[in-house]
Description:
The structure is a single chain. The protein is about 25% helix and about 35% strand. By secondary structure, it is α/β, with parallel strands linked by helices. A seven-stranded mixed β-sheet has the order 1-2-3-4-5-6-7. Helix 1 links the parallel strand 4 (about 35) and strand 5 (about 55-60). The termini are far apart.
Amino acid sequence: MLIPVTKSIFSWSSNDPEIGIEQMGHLVIKNGKAILIDPPAVPKLQEAVRTLGEPEAVIITNYSHLRGGNRLATSLNVPLFLPKPTGPFTERAELSRKYHRIGKFTEYDDGTKLPGEMKAFRASVVLSDGRPFMEEYVLQYDNFLITGDSAHGEDGKLVIFPESFPIPNAMDIGKMTRKQLSEILKKINVSSLVAGHGDPVTENLLDMVQ
């Protein structure tokens, strides 16, 4: 079930039955503590987590990735960290919390230091007409950037959302995402990536984004 990306990062996948895409979750082990990021709920996951480390937290990168986060945080008895929405994304976040019946949670923001010595950076795309498109917080963990939807690996290449999707103005919107990721990567020292979908990117991440 859990596939090692490094000695301290494990991934697993589950097919989303509603939209038919593979969704990736990640488990980070730091100083004997286990942190789940955007976790799809799959059988025996709790047991696997406890085998590898003491459960410490569940972190969600964006409100489209709530997945099994609330249920797993409850069953593992750890805090649920949710991203602080900004501007036009606030209403969407409130509706998502209500739909998923989320009660207690800890909100994090741009620059927040999270469990596992991770640090969060906001990537937000609002369309020219003011409509909210995508907002998430990418996480720095050691030499890795952990993303939700903004970018992922595929066949050795980096895919920027939504450049490969059949939607109007996909390339123009993707340029906005690409610019934000580039600005984040210039501030921090990472070269690899794992994401909420797709494959890892193991080197030259900044060169791929620019």
